[in-house]
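2024-03-11 09:14:02 DEBUG pipeline.ingest accepted 1 chain
2024-03-11 09:14:02 DEBUG pipeline.ingest length=223
2024-03-11 09:14:03 DEBUG pipeline.predict start
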Amino acid sequence: MIRVFVVDDHRLFRVGLRRLLEGMKGVEVVGEADSGESAVTQVRALRPNVVLMDICMPGIGGIEATRRIARMELGARVIAVTAYEDNPFPVQVLRAGASGYLTKGVSAEELYEAIRRVFLGKRYLSADVAQQLAVSAFDDAPESPFEQLSNREMQIMMMVVNCQKVNDISNHLHLSPKTVNSYRYRIFEKLNVSSDVELTLMAVRHGMLDSRTNGVAQPLAAG
């Protein structure tokens, strides 16, 4: 049996995905989580073979959770299952240690194939994502300005535009507030913006925010 763990902050999606997985031969759902923090804790305890990971969630989110799970070296392989198919998300998640990347419009057959291949130690990318990565490798200019961010910068950027305060980010990522602010200003410099509002507007223009996000984030409090 392939032991699968599901991570998504949408309860309805988790329920539907779990039912789909339970109908697959040779697949056992061993648990589920609604946040990156909970996923890391439960994966350590349950030791699944495959983790189906959403990307944009409250708290540390899916990229940081993927990085932490990969660093645990428990043999759990992560497949991102997300609504985001454009860069920089695929590159960032793969850099964090994911073994696969699927969009949420994937068929049940392709989901099963991805799980099976990743379980066997291979990588799996949905066809549209694989084509995009192949094309971008030959482009001189990046499609998104966010592609120049490191994994950590990307993680902090996503937390900023989702209105998390410096102290909250500090606690989630086990960094000092001073370090978090240093990352913020480095992100501003790389993206040529001067405030959290400008950063959020740029994220909106490039489709970086969850469709559930309403309005524009307010400036991030320094403490």
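2024-03-11 09:14:41 DEBUG pipeline.report The longest helix spans residues 177-191.
2024-03-11 09:14:41 DEBUG pipeline.predict end
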